[in-house]
């Protein structure tokens, strides 16, 4: 039956239903009395609704909505878009519980997205264009609570590091007297790459003075949330930690050392002496990247071919040399970028390749058809260093001694201050800088660490005074802990 509704597939709709013991614990805490009216803004098949009869659920998937009606006959289920319903309803609730859909910004779009962001803006929350769906769901749900109301939700672990989570948390601490976040290391959804934490808020209409934060190795079912282990100072969270909760997974001694480094005038960040950017986007990789054998067969002159690092998997450990490029060529890998300039006179062999069937196919791609001329790949740079975009144990930074270019699957590092770079970059493999990569980057599915260009630019190179204060074993333990949290070292 689900096949009749491909737009509501599990992956597209973010519908991964919650383990029963988790939903039971959340509802037990949120609903204090049988008369409490509970709302689940994305009720799925009614798992939360079935635990409290006096409930209202909204579900856009018609198959799931029908199942929710059957599963929770005492509840009221509305089929349709939650944000439309939230604007129109006049009902207000004592509590809310659920598992909002986690739909990334690429598929959280069009009218649903516009309605969601407009509603949040009316409530005083401005989300950027990279916002995933769950954050607006929580803001809109909070706006439907009565004064003193409560919420208990499963949330993605992105609440601990995503830039778009900061406006949500700012709204929550300004709207509830208590905001309690529980970080759970062992996956709540074992089959998903996405990690999930728990969120409890209480006292709608109040204002929190701190964020309560609890760190658990594993979720244990209980009616009351675990006791708060620490109270996070909002000023410190906003300034020192750039509105991220992930640093609070570490021991206080490590956080204090890192904070001391940030306050030290002798500390530098990568962006202080280098520009971090992404490589070029060709628009059609198979067409623009040639194997040496194909370039020879097509008689493309070498002056129109630029060796390119296409992904981080083939990066050497320390340096890209001419010998490295020669090895790529001997393997006949497609590493030669067809590098053509605007208004450049092209030889017959190049024109023939552009006019081939492969060329006609390539020029139909979105990037190609929206640039002039279509065959001139923009933003081709020769960086000083290349950094891995997604990493396992360590973020790889290699010197570009061979003068290759790179695609957007890695980062292009161009040095602005060579004296400072020569002084600091040898510390790249040190414990402190590696810990900084973990703290400034964020976890991605599959245990990988991802560093966006802005995050990479924030990587810290501490002063000598800070290094002398550091305990190397403690830093290594902290690195290992963060890697276990992103499940790389499991």
Give your account of this protein's structure.
This protein has 490 residues and is an alpha/beta fold. The chain has 2 domains: 248 residues, Rossmann fold (3-Layer(aba) Sandwich), CATH 3.40.50; 176 residues, no CATH class. The chain is built from 20 helices and 23 strands. Strands 3-2-1-4-5-7-6-8-9 form a 9-stranded mixed β-sheet, with helices on both faces. A hairpin with a 3-residue loop joins strand 21 and strand 22. Helix 5 crosses helix 6 and helix 17 runs parallel beside helix 20. It is globular. The two termini are 38 Å apart. The N terminus is likely disordered.
Give the fraction of residues assigned to helices: 25-40%
Outline:
globular
Mean pLDDT: 91
The number of helical segments is 20
Number of domains: 2
The strand line-up of the biggest sheet is 3-2-1-4-5-7-6-8-9
CATH top-level class of the largest domain: Alpha Beta
Write out the CATH superfamily name of the largest domain. Vaccinia Virus protein VP39
The major β-sheet equals: 9 strands, mixed
The CATH architecture of the largest domain can be named as 3-Layer(aba) Sandwich
Strand content: 15-25%
Backbone CA Rg: 26 Å
Unreliable stretches: 1-15
């Amino acid at each position: 039956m689900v096949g009749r509704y491909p737009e509501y597939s599990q992956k597209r709709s973010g519908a991964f239903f919650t383990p029963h013991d988790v939903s039971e614990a959340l509802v037990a805490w949120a609903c204090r009395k049988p008369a409490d009216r509970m709302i689940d803004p994305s009720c799925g098949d009614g798992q939360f609704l079935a635990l409290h009869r006096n409930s209202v659920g909204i579900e856009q998937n018609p198959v799931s909505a029908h199942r929710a009606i059957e599963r929770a006959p005492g509840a009221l289920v509305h089929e349709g878009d939650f944000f439309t319903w939230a604007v129109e309803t006049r009902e207000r609730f004592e509590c809310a519980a659920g598992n909002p859909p986690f739909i990334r910004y690429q598929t959280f779009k069009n009218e649903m997205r516009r309605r969601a962001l407009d509603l949040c803006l009316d409530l005083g929350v401005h989300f950027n264009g990279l916002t995933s769906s769950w954050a607006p769901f929580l803001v809109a749900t909070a706006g439907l609570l009565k004064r003193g109301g409560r919420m208990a939700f499963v949330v993605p672990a992105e609440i601990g590091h995503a830039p778009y989570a900061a406006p949500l948390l700012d709204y929550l601490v300004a709207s509830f007297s208590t905001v309690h976040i529980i970080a759970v290391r062992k996956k709540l959804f074992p089959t998903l790459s996405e990690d999930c934490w728990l969120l409890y808020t209480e006292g709608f209409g109040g204002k929190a003075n701190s964020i309560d934060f609890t760190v658990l190795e594993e979720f244990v079912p209980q009616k009351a949330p675990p006791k708060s282990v620490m109270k996070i100072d909002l000023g410190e969270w906003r300034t020192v930690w750039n509105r991220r909760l992930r640093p609070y997974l570490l021991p206080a001694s490590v956080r204090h050392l890192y904070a001391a480094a940030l306050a030290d005038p002798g500390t530098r960040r990568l962006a202080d002496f280098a520009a971090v950017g992404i490589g070029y986007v060709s628009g059609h990789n198979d067409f623009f990247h040639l194997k040496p054998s194909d370039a020879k067969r097509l008689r493309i002159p070498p002056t129109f071919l630029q060796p390119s690092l296409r992904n981080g998997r083939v990066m050497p450990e320390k340096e890209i040399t001419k010998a490295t490029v020669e090895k790529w060529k001997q393997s006949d890998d497609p590493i030669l970028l067809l590098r053509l300039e605007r208004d450049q006179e092209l030889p017959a062999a190049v024109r023939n390749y552009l006019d081939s069937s492969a060329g006609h196919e390539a020029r139909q791609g979105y990037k190609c058809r929206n640039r002039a001329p279509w065959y001139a790949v923009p933003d081709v740079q020769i960086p000083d260093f290349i950094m891995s975009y997604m990493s396992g144990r360590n973020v790889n930074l290699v010197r570009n001694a061979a003068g290759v270019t790179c695609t957007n699957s890695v980062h292009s590092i161009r040095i602005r201050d060579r004296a400072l770079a020569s002084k600091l970059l040898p510390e790249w493999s040190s414990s402190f800088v590696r810990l900084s990569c973990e703290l400034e980057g964020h976890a991605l599915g599959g245990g990988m660490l991802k560093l966006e260009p802005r995050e990479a630019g924030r990587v810290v190179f501490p002063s000598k005074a800070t290094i002398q204060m550091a305990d190397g074993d403690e830093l290594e333990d902290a690195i290992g802990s963060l890697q276990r949290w992103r499940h790389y070292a499991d």
